[in-house]
Each structure stands twice: as structure tokens, then as C-alpha cells.
Write a structure and sequence with these properties.
Shape: elongated
Order of helices and strands: HEHEHEHEEHEHHEEEHHHH
CATH class of the largest domain: Alpha Beta
Number of strands: 9
CATH superfamily of the largest domain: Vaccinia Virus protein VP39
Bound molecules: S-adenosylmethionine
Structural class: alpha/beta
Strand content: 15-25%
CATH architecture of the largest domain: 3-Layer(aba) Sandwich
Helix content: 25-40%
């Protein structure tokens, strides 16, 4: 028998270690190991990869990532009550699970990981979006990770994968689409979580491209896109005016009509505009 199969059911783990869910930490646990196995499969082949798992909690997804053959997992969990429960999993898989008790927003995992690195997480939504933005925004590309398999509120997942013209298209879609390939791979109903949140969720799988689709400086593009979508109903000539007084000329050069609204402009033209800004 696989040693992971000898671990107690997650409900017993929660009872034994007193892991009553804390709202302040966004704790909505997945207790169905069939579901966590499906999420782990969405992360792809793990046998040759280090996996960075953020927010393992009682360890349902952690077990499934190990069962899926992950070479090694670095699990970063802020709630110290979960650490003994995760240590039980580490004992069942010697040398394959390192657990760090830290806030993922303050902790840099890169020194603890060997490439290729795949990230997998079921995180509270606010932390997930902050980390995603950070992982998609480094000045240099490719990033330290090869893929991200992450649970989000369904509405956020739609924003990540949306294309121009879609009401969900915005800053996250451009960040994700410029240098990676993002796909919504699984819907997860609210009832799958304990306790049950108010909204449905979805898993997004993002693969880093070897190089950006279009040339642009990440900081310049980030600045333009943030200003453009700050007021998504405004025309670009007015929302970008504070960045450059001659904005209409620059927009024309990038093949964008000054009266266009940001949601109609594709990534290629936002990148062209960023290039024009950097040449001025
Ligand atoms: N992965 C587990 C599962 O699927 O059942 C737990 C998911 S629960 C939605 C989110 C987890 O992230 C909790 O265990 C919580 O303590 C942890 N967490 C919340 N904020 C965190 C942070 N800033 N850094 C690391 N972990 C965090």
C-alpha cells in the first residue's frame, strides 16, 4: 500500500489538530481527495519538477500532488496550527515535502527550489490575486516558474483568461496573455469547500511562454495598462493623458484610436504603445 494511503481522512486530521477554519485566513478547505487529485492532474507531469504549494492547510492538495508523483514540494503555510498535520504527510514521503511556516507574501521561495518549478495552490482570493500579479510581472522573462495551477473565485478566473471585447478583459488578462498561455481548466462549485464560501470557484492553468508574444518593457506596459483600466469606461485619450500630453499622437502611432476604450484594445497594440513610450 502507498504510504500516503495510510494517512487518516482529512476530517480526522482537522479534528485531531484543532484546525477549525479561520475566516481571517480565508480557510475554505477541500476535503474530497478525488477533487484534489483532479486539481493535481491539471498541474501536469510533476515527476521531474519541484512544486511550490502555497497555503496547504490540512494538506489535501499536498497529498494529491505527492500521489501525482511530484519530485519535491515546498509548502508555504502561514497558519502554524497546520504545521504538525503537514509534518505527518512529510513523514509518509521522506525527503519529498518541505514545509515552511511563513506568509507567502513576505517569503521568497526561489532559493528553496530547483528548476523546473510548477506552482499549485488553493489560496484565499486576495492573496492569490496579489501573488499572481507578482508572478506575472517580473522585468525579466522567463520567470522562475514553468506553470501555475491556481484556484480563484470564478469571476477572477474569467478575468485572467478573457480576450479583448469581453467584459472581463482587463489588467489581469493582459498580464497573463502577454507572456503566458492561460486556460480555465475546471469549475469548482462552492459546495466542494468546507466551510462553503458564497461564490463558485475555478482552477486556472497558466504556462509561461519561452518569450513574450510581443516586445515591450514590463514596467512601461504595466503602467499604461493600470492607467488605461483604472476607469474602463473612459476613452484612452483621457485616461492616459496624465502619462503623456501628446497621448493622441502616440495612440495613433500604435494603431489605437484615441476614442477607443481599453477593453477593445488587444495586447499587441498595448505593447506597441509601450514601445512608443520608451522611444519618446
Ligand atoms: N490547500 C488547502 C485546501 O485546499 O484545503 C487549504 C486552502 S484554504 C482556501 C487557504 C490556505 O492558505 C489556508 O490554509 C490558509 O491558512 C493559507 N494562507 C492564507 N493566507 C496565507 C499566506 N499569506 N501565506 C501562506 N498561506 C496562507
Amino acid at each position: 500500500m502507498n504510504t500516503l494511503d495510510t494517512l487518516p481522512p482529512l476530517r480526522d486530521v482537522i479534528a485531531t489538530h484543532g484546525l477549525a477554519a479561520r475566516k481571517s485566513l480565508g480557510q475554505n478547505f477541500l476535503l474530497d481527495l478525488n477533487l484534489t487529485a483532479k486539481i493535481a492532474r491539471a498541474a501536469g507531469v510533476l515527476a521531474d519538477a519541484d512544486v511550490l504549494e502555497i497555503g496547504p492547510g490540512p494538506g489535501g492538495l499536498t497529498r494529491s500532488l505527492l500521489a501525482q508523483g511530484a519530485r519535491r514540494i515546498l509548502a508555504v503555510e502561514t497558519d502554524r496550527r497546520c504545521i504538525p498535520a503537514l509534518a505527518d504527510i512529510a513523514r509518509a514521503c521522506p525527503g519529498r515535502l518541505e514545509v515552511i511556516n511563513a506568509d507567502a507574501l513576505q517569503f521568497d521561495p526561489r532559493d528553496h527550489l530547483s528548476p523546473p518549478v510548477k506552482v499549485a495552490a488553493n489560496l484565499p482570493y486576495n492573496v492569490g490575486t496579489q501573488l499572481l500579479t507578482r508572478w506575472l510581472s517580473p522585468p525579466e522573462w522567463p520567470p522562475f516558474w514553468q506553470s501555475l495551477t491556481l484556484m480563484f473565485q470564478r469571476e477572477v478566473a474569467e478575468r485572467i483568461v478573457a480576450g479583448p471585447g469581453n467584459k472581463s478583459y482587463g489588467r489581469l488578462s493582459i498580464l497573463a496573455g502577454w507572456r503566458s498561455q492561460a486556460q480555465l481548466v475546471m469549475d469548482v462549485p462552492a459546495r466542494a469547500f468546507t466551510p462553503q464560501p458564497k461564490v463558485n470557484s475555478a482552477v486556472v492553468h497558466i504556462e509561461a511562454l519561452p518569450a513574450p508574444r510581443f516586445p515591450a518593457d514590463a514596467r512601461t506596459l504595466g503602467k499604461i495598462v493600470a492607467s488605461a483600466f483604472q476607469h474602463r469606461r473612459k476613452m484612452l485619450r483621457s485616461s492616459l493623458k496624465s502619462l503623456a500630453p501628446d497621448i493622441e499622437d502616440r495612440l495613433h502611432k500604435a494603431n489605437i484610436r484615441p476614442t477607443d476604450r481599453p477593453e477593445t484594445v488587444d495586447i499587441e497594440r498595448f505593447c506597441a504603445l509601450a514601445e512608443i513610450f520608451d522611444k519618446c
